[in-house]
User: Fold this.
Amino acid sequence: MKIAVKGEQDIEYLATFVHGVLAGLHALGMVYNIKRRNWFDVGAHSVAMSYDVWATAKHLVALDRLTTRPRPSLVNKFQAAAQD
Assistant:
């Protein structure tokens, strides 16, 4: 079980890094195309950058879920409060 979790963590680290780098490269592409006044490509890079920023955030949330320990005492308190 621990090997599977470690593998998932490695994939999330890699995916977070890749999407972050791609977002940065799309930002550079936007700046370059703004200077050249190539507005169609500015739009394309901004859409792609938006997706990569969104994907990076999703991978960070998944990574946080995989790396933090569960808190059973808090979970039990919330479940007990929900049942009342």
Q: What stands out?
A: Residues 27 and 49 are 7 Å apart (CA to CA). Residues 2-35 form the longest helix (34 residues). Helices lie at 2-35, 39-67, 72-83.
